[in-house]
Every structure is written in C-alpha cells, then in structure tokens.
Amino acid sequence: MMAQRSKMSSKRKFVADGVFVAELNELLTRELAEDGYAGVEVRTTPHRTEIIIRATRTQNVLGEKGQRIRELTSVVQKRFSFDDGAVELYAERVQNRGLCAQAQAESLKFKLLGGLAVRRACYGVVRFVMEASAKGVEVIVTGKLRGQRAKAMKFGDGYMIKTGHAGQVYTDTAVRHVMMRQGVVGIKVSIMLPHDPKGLQGPSIPLDDVVVILEPKDEVSPATMLAQQEAAAAAQQAAYLKAQMMAPTPEVDPMEAGMEDPNAAAGF
To answer: Which residues contact residue 117 at a Cβ distance below 8 angstroms, ignoring those fewer than 6 apart?
Structure first.
C-alpha cells in the first residue's frame, strides 16, 4: 500500500486517505460499539502507520493479554494491504467521557435498545454531560418513537454555538442509527465544550465574544506620590554624599607641589 501511495498524485492521495479513515472508523464503530468507542486517529510515519483508538473501556479493546487488539491489527493489515509490521494499533482512554459526543451517543443508543423510555434516557444524558462541566448540550432523537407517526424530539441545556468558527471548534457532534423493532431511530448528540487554556478538556482558543474585565489598580493620592518622590530624591542624595565620602583622595607629592615651572614663571 505504501508503494502505491508514493506513486499517486496529491489529489488521489488525499481522497485515498479520507476513504481509509472513513472505512476504518466504520469498522471500529461496529466492532467496538459496546466498549465505548469514541473515535480514531491515524498517524503516518515514513516507516509505519500508527492507529490510535479512543475508547472509554480500553481494557475491553485490548482484550485478554492483548489478543483482541492483535486481531484488529491483522484485520486492518489484510484489508488495506499493509506490509508486515507496517501498521500498529493502540488504545487510548477517553479522559472525560461526559465531554465526548460519540461516547454519549453510544450510551444513549444502548439505553434505547434496552427498552428505556426516550425522555428518561435523553434527560439522563443531558444531566450527565452538564455535570461533566460542559457549557451546553443538545440531544435530538428522530423516528417512530411512539405510534406509527415519526417525529423528532429535542432535549437541550446550557449554551450552544452552531455557526461560525466557534461552532466548528467548540462543538463536538456525533450521529448514531438505532435499529429498533418499529424502525430506525436517529440520534444526534452535540456538546459545547468548555474553554481550557491547556487544551485538555476543551479548546485552548478563547471565544470571540468573551470579555474579561480586569480589576482596576489602586490609585495613589497626589500627596502620597509627592512624598514618595521626595523620599526617593533624599535617599539618592544621601547615597551620593556617602559615595563621595568613601572615595579615596588622590595623593600629591610635596616636591611637585612646591616646585614651579620655570617657563611659566618667565612668561613663556
């Protein structure tokens, strides 16, 4: 596969990379749905390709003694024609699953499959996300929820930006399809992430409309300022006089002091 990629044009290479990531994400979504799958990241190096699987239960992804991760590596290697040792799979734990839209969408999916009422399941997800320090959350469930008539139900809380650059950076979105007995039910979970200067819990870029008002500095009265200036000038003058007193005086030879230049005395 690496040899074929090196001969591709740039346009075909980008398309092939996108198709590879999409197909890999679809495979892992179906295989690791019950293990809290939350996304995949592909890092390509000159020697090998590293695939990082993000999940809430990494121990289930690894399997007993790493058997499951080896099986997934073998499947990916055969499907995408990688050379032996050219692809490596790793599992990474999601730090805060309350701020991961994919993990919450999977959680809601299994709640609905388990027979839990739609309102109760959605409000449970909304409360869990808001308790995880999210700025806002929106859950949309569409399909035949009750009866034969399809409809959409929307549940939300907090603050949500949907447009502009902030909507792309701050909003994490996930979509899942639930195969219910009465038909297919669609789930969409959107989470407004909090601002984090370190970039761990959320984006490090601050929002455009957030204004931080700093506390004013303590004002000094003119009399106090004049007294401080006079004290500083007095201290500077005292330091100058002390330096003058400490400086050594130059020694003058008495013979030279008593002698007079004969040329100067004669008027030359």
So the answer is: none
Q: Is the pLDDT of residue 178 over 70?
A: yes
Which uninterrupted H or E stretch holds 23? helix 10-31
For 32-178, where are the alpha helices, taking DSSP H only?
58-62, 67-79, 101-113, 118-131, 164-170
Q: Is 126 exposed, middle or buried (0-12, 13-18, 19+ CB in 10 A)?
A: buried
* Of residues 72, 88, 82, the one with CA closest to residue 37: 72
Straight-line distance from the first to the last Cα atom of the chain, in angstroms, rounded to the nearest whole number: 103
34 half-sphere exposure, CB direction, 13 A CA radius: 4
How many CB atoms within 10 Å of residue 142? Answer: 15
Find the helix or strand (DSSP H, E) in which 256 lies: helix 254-258
Amino acid in position 267: G
CA distance 144 to 170: 31
* Structure tokens, 167: 């909507």
The mean pLDDT of the chain is 86
Reported confidence tier of residue 1, pLDDT bands at 50, 70, 90: low
Rounded CA gap, 72 and 61, in Å?
9
| 3-state SS assignment for residue 205 | coil
User: CA-CA distance, 44 to 23, in Å (whole number)?
Assistant: 17
Under 8 Å between Cβ of 156 and 200: no
Question: CA nearest 141: which of 161, 120, 127, 158?
Answer: 120
Confidence band, pLDDT 50/70/90 cuts, at residue 250: low
